[in-house]
Write a sequence for this structure.
C-alpha cells in the first residue's frame, strides 16, 4: 500500500486543568491511531468534548502532541523544520472553520483571502495567473460567476456562500487534506446538502482528502468513505462508513446511531438507554471509558483499556466484548498489561 | 378578566386543574398574528398573519430555517416581545382570554402558573450567580407561595421528574452539564404544572444522544402530566417522532400545517418537501440529495407573489404575481398555488406529478 498522506501513531494531547490543590491532567486525545489516504473523506464523529477538534488542531499544528507522532507522507512532523517544509505542510493541510460569519475578514473583499494565500503558497504565479486561479477555485466550489463573486464583501454573501469561500481558500493552496471542523453545522438544513456536495466534488475532481469533523452522523454517511468514532478522547471504532453504521461493533457507536433522528424509521430508543453523559477524562485510570454507560459491561472493562483491534479487514474496534465475539478476547484483554 | 386563577390555592398541584368547562375550545388559539420590527429603514414584518391552535395535552411543533420568524412568533404568543418588535395585529386567545390586550399586571398570574417558556440557552436563561434552588424559590415566591417547606418540597419534586438528584438544588448552573441545565430549566417550567409549555429550541445546543434523551423525557413528562407543548426547532427530523401536529414556516408565513405524520409522509408544499429531502438518511440506499437552491428572502425585500417562488422547482408564471393563501388539501393546510382552484397550472390539472421536480431542476 502507498504511504498515507497523514498518519497518527499513539497521538495524545494532555491539558493541565485546575489550579492550586486540584491540579489534574485532562486527556483530550488519548493514544489515537489513524491514517488519511489520498482522495478520501474521513468522518470523525463523536459528542462535544470527545476530542474531535483537538485532533484537527493537532494535525494543523495549533497544538503539539504530548506524546505520539503525526507523519506527513511518511515524515514525522518535527522533522519538517525548514520554513519551506513548514509552508509546504501548511499549504497541504489547510483548515476550514465552523463559523463562516467570523472566519472571513469583514473589511476585505472575499478575493483577498484567496489571493493572499496564493501569493504566499504559490509564488510561481504572477498576478494574472493568481486571478485566474482564484476564479478557478471559486467556480470549483460552485460559486459562479466567479469574477463577480470574488468582488463581494462577506456581508453581501449568505452563510452557505461564505463557507464555500472558506473551501475555495483552502483549495487554492493545492491541498492534500482539508481539515473541516464542523463546516456545515452553522448552516440551515436546506443549504447544508449543497456544501456536502461541494466536499464530494473536491474529492472526486480535485482529488483532495478531507477530514470531516461532525456530530451529524447522517451527513457523515452521506459524504464520507470511512468513519472514526471518538468517545472521551479515544477512537473507539473506525472503518468503512456503511459497515460502521449498519453493523456497529462498539456499544457506543450503537447508541450514537440509535440517537440519530430519522423521520423515515421508527423510534427505537428509550429514555433509559440514552441517559448518562461522557466522562471528563481528568487523570484517567485504565479501563474502558464507556464502561459506566455500557449495557454489555464486564468486570474486565473497568480495569483494562481495550486496544483498537482490526476485527474485520479495515474495521477497527476498541471493545473487549466485540473482540471476544470475534474470538480475540485474549489479545484485547492482555494488550494493556 | 383572566385573573380568576390568581385566587388559586398556593399549592402548585392544584393549579393544574383545567379551567372551567372550556374542554371543547382549544387551549391556545392564535388568530392572524402579525409581528413587525420598526427599523430605521422602515417596518419589516417578521410574522405575517399566522393562525395556530394548540389543544390540551397536544404537542405542536413549529419548524423553519433561521430568520423565518419562528422564534419571533413564539415571543409574540408569550407576550415577551421587546421594542423594536411589536404585535401589529391579531389575537392570542389562551384559556379564553386575549393575551395581546392584557398588561403586565394582568399577565403576571398567567405566566408560570398556566404558561411557561423554556428558552434556547439555559446557560443564558439561568442566573449564573444563584443556586438552582434559589431561582426556583424566586419563581414560587413571586406567585405567592410563602412556605419554605412547600417550596423545597415542590422543587425536589420537579427535579425528580426530570431525573436530577435533589442535591443539585444547591448547585450553581455552571456545575451542571448542558443536558442537565436544560432539564433543570424544564423542571422550573413545571413548578406550577402549567397547561402549556412553550419551548424555543431547547435541545439545539446539545449532542445527539443528550438531545434524544431530552426529547424522550419531555414526551414522557407530557404523557404523565398532560401539559401541551408548543415546540420551535429548525431540525424537522427531531420532532418527527414526538409532535402531534407540525407547522412549517417560511419567510414569516405559515406554509404548511397538519398532522406530523401526514406532513412527513406526504408533504404538500414544495418547501416542506425540499426540507425533508435535504436530510440524508442513515439507513437504506444512499441517494444524491440536492437541498434547496438559493437562500430565504430578506424580510425587508419580500418577493411578490409566492415567497418561495425564487427557490421553488415547481414554480410557474402565476407564482410570481399571485400571492397564495392557505388552501385546504386533504387534511392539511398548504400555502401553494398548486392547490388553488383558480391558479392551478393546466398541466397539473390531475394529481400533481412528483417526478416533475427532478426534470425541472
Amino acid at each position: 500500500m502507498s504511504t498515507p498522506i497523514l498518519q497518527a501513531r499513539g497521538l495524545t494531547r494532555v491539558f493541565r486543568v485546575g489550579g492550586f490543590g486540584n491540579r489534574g491532567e485532562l486527556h483530550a486525545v488519548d493514544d489515537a491511531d489513524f491514517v488519511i489516504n489520498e482522495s478520501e473523506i474521513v468522518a470523525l464523529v463523536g459528542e462535544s468534548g470527545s476530542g474531535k477538534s483537538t485532533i484537527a488542531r493537532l494535525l494543523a499544528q495549533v497544538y503539539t502532541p504530548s506524546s505520539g507522532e503525526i507523519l506527513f507522507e511518511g515524515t514525522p512532523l518535527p522533522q519538517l523544520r525548514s520554513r519551506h517544509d513548514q509552508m509546504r505542510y501548511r499549504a497541504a493541510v489547510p483548515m476550514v472553520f465552523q463559523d463562516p460569519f467570523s472566519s472571513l475578514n469583514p473589511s476585505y473583499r472575499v478575493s483577498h483571502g484567496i489571493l493572499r494565500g496564493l501569493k504566499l503558497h504559490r509564488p510561481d504565479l504572477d498576478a494574472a495567473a493568481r486571478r485566474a486561479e482564484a476564479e478557478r477555485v471559486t467556480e470549483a466550489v460552485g460559486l459562479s460567476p466567479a469574477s463577480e463573486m470574488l468582488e463581494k464583501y462577506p456581508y453581501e454573501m449568505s452563510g452557505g456562500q461564505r463557507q464555500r469561500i472558506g473551501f475555495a481558500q483552502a483549495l487554492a493552496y493545492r491541498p492534500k487534506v482539508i481539515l473541516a471542523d464542523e463546516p456545515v453545522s452553522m448552516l440551515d438544513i436546506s443549504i447544508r446538502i449543497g456544501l456536502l456536495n461541494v466536499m464530494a466534488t473536491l474529492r472526486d475532481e480535485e482529488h483532495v482528502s478531507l477530514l470531516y469533523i461532525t456530530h451529524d452522523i447522517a451527513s457523515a454517511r452521506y459524504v464520507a468513505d470511512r468513519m472514526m468514532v471518538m468517545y472521551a478522547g479515544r477512537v473507539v471504532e473506525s472503518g468503512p462508513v456503511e459497515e460502521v453504521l449498519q453493523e456497529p461493533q462498539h456499544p457506543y457507536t450503537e447508541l450514537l446511531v440509535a440517537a440519530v433522528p430519522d423521520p423515515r424509521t421508527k423510534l427505537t430508543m428509550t429514555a433509559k438507554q440514552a441517559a448518562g453523559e461522557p466522562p471528563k477524562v481528568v487523570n484517567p485510570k485504565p479501563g474502558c471509558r464507556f464502561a459506566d454507560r455500557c449495557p454489555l459491561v464486564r468486570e474486565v472493562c473497568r480495569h483494562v483499556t481495550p486496544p483498537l483491534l482490526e476485527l474485520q479487514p479495515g474495521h477497527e474496534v476498541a471493545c473487549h466484548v466485540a473482540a471476544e465475539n470475534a474470538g480475540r478476547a485474549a489479545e484485547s484483554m492482555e494488550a494493556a498489561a | 378578566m383572566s385573573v380568576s386563577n390568581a385566587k388559586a390555592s398556593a399549592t402548585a398541584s392544584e393549579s393544574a386543574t383545567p379551567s372551567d368547562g372550556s374542554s371543547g375550545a382549544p387551549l391556545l388559539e392564535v388568530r392572524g398574528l402579525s409581528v413587525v420590527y420598526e427599523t430605521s429603514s422602515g417596518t419589516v414584518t417578521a410574522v405575517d398573519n399566522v393562525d395556530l391552535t394548540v389543544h390540551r395535552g397536544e404537542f405542536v411543533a413549529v419548524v423553519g430555517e433561521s430568520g423565518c420568524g419562528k422564534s419571533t412568533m413564539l415571543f409574540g404568543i408569550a407576550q415577551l416581545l421587546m421594542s423594536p418588535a411589536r404585535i401589529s395585529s391579531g389575537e392570542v386567545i389562551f384559556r379564553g382570554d386575549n393575551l395581546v390586550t392584557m398588561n403586565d399586571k394582568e399577565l403576571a398570574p398567567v405566566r408560570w402558573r398556566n404558561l411557561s417558556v423554556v428558552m434556547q440557552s439555559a446557560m443564558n436563561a439561568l442566573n449564573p450567580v444563584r443556586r438552582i434552588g434559589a431561582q426556583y424559590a424566586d419563581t414560587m415566591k413571586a406567585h405567592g407561595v410563602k412556605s419554605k417547606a412547600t417550596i423545597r418540597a415542590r422543587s425536589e419534586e420537579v427535579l425528580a421528574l426530570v431525573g436530577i438528584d435533589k442535591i443539585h438544588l444547591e448547585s450553581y448552573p455552571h456545575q451542571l452539564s448542558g443536558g442537565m441545565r436544560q432539564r433543570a430549566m424544564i423542571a422550573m417550567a413545571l413548578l406550577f404544572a402549567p397547561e402549556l409549555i412553550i419551548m424555543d429550541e431547547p435541545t439545539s445546543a446539545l449532542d445527539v444522544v443528550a438531545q434524544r434523551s431530552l426529547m424522550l423525557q419531555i414526551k414522557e413528562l407530557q404523557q404523565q402530566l398532560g401539559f401541551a407543548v408548543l415546540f420551535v426547532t429548525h431540525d424537522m427530523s427531531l420532532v418527527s417522532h414526538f409532535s402531534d401536529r407540525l407547522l412549517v414556516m417560511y419567510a414569516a408565513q405559515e406554509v404548511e400545517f397538519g398532522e406530523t405524520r401526514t406532513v412527513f409522509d406526504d408533504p404538500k408544499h414544495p418547501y416542506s418537501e425540499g426540507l425533508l429531502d435535504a436530510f440524508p438518511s442513515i439507513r437504506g440506499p444512499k441517494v444524491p440529495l440536492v437541498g434547496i437552491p438559493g437562500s430565504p428572502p430578506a424580510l425587508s425585500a419580500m418577493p411578490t407573489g409566492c415567497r418561495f417562488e425564487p427557490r421553488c422547482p415547481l414554480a410557474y408564471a402565476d407564482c410570481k404575481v399571485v400571492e397564495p393563501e392557505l388552501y385546504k388539501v386533504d387534511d392539511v393546510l398548504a400555502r401553494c398555488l398548486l392547490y388553488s382552484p383558480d391558479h392551478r397550472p393546466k398541466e397539473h390539472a390531475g394529481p400533481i406529478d412528483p417526478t416533475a421536480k427532478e426534470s425541472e431542476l
The first strand of chain B starts at residue 28 and ends at 39. The CA atoms of residues 265 and 273 of chain B lie 10 Å apart. Chain B touches chain A at residues 65-66, 163, 177, 179, 207-213, 216-217, 220, 234-238, 240-241, 264, 274-276, 278-284, 286, 288-293, 295-296 (CB under 8 Å). Chain B is about 25% helix and 20% strand.
